Amino acid sequence: MTTWVVGYRLGDDASSRQVTALVTESGVLHRAHGTYGKLPRLSKPQPSPALYSRTLFEGEHPLARPIAELRKHYADYTKRGYSLALVPPAVVRLDMEEHPPFPEKPHRELMQAFIGAAPNTPQPLDTAIGAFRATLGLPTRPANVSWVPRARPQPPRVEAMLRTLAHGSPISSPQRPAGRLDRHG
User: Fold this and answer.
1) 68 near 21, Cβ under 8 Å?
2) In the chain, which end has fewer C-beta atoms inside a 10 angstrom radius, N or C?
3) In three state form, how does the secondary structure of the chain look?
C-alpha cells in the first residue's frame, strides 16, 4: 500500500535545531523536532476534526484543517528563525501504510521514509500543497487569481428609489427648508 504526503523539514543554525511537519492523504498532521544529528522527538499526530465529527464539520474536506495547520506551522517556525530548508516543501509517495486514521502514537517510520524519499528541489509550500491536492484529485486554486471586490448591497433608501424609477414613476425629494438648521436656537 502507498501513502501520499506533503511536508518539509526546516532548520535553525543558530540553535542547531530542526523541525519536520507533514500531512498524509488521510488527513493527519505529523510533527517532529529536535537537535541536529539526534533522533527527533515526535509530537502526537493530529487527525483532522472532520474525520471523527461528521455532524460538526459537515461539508469540510478532511484535508482542509491539516493543510491549514501545516501552513501555520511553516509560517510560525520561519518567523522563529527556522529559515534553512533542510527538506524543502515536497509531495512524496511513500511505499508504506499509515497507521489507522486515528493514530494514538507517533509514526517514526513515516517520518523517516519522508525524509529519505523527499527531493531536494526548492519550491514554495503553496506549490507543494497544490501538487499534493492535484495528485489526490482535489480541486486546486489557479495560480493567477485576480481579486475582484464583491458588489456591496445598496442602502434600503437607494433600493426603494431604484424600484420607483424602474416602474417609471418620478422621484421627488421631500421639501426641506433651505439654509442652516440651528438646533440650539
Assistant:
1) no
2) C
3) CCEEEEEEEEEECCCCEEEEEEEECCCEEEEEEEECCCCCEECCCEECHHHHCCCCCCCCCCCHHHHHHHHHHHHHHHHCCCCEEEEEEEEEEECCCCCCCCCCCCCHHHHHHHHHHCCCCCCCHHHHHHHHHHHCCCCCCCCCCCCCCCCCCCCHHHHHHHHHHHCCCCCCCCCCCCCCCCCCC
Burial 16-37 (b: 16+ CB within 10 A, else e): ebbbbbbbbbbbbbbbbbeeee
How many CA within 13 A on the CB side of residue 7? 30
Q: What is the pLDDT of residues 83-130, one digit of tens each?
A: 999 999 999 999 888 766 666 788 889 899 999 999 989 999 999 999
Cell triple for 24:
498524509
pLDDT under 70 in the chain at which residues? 53-59, 99-103, 141-148, 177-185
- 102 in Cβ contact with 47 (< 8 Å): yes
- Structural contact between residues 131 and 91, judged by C-beta atoms closer than 8 angstroms: yes
Place of cell 461528521: 54
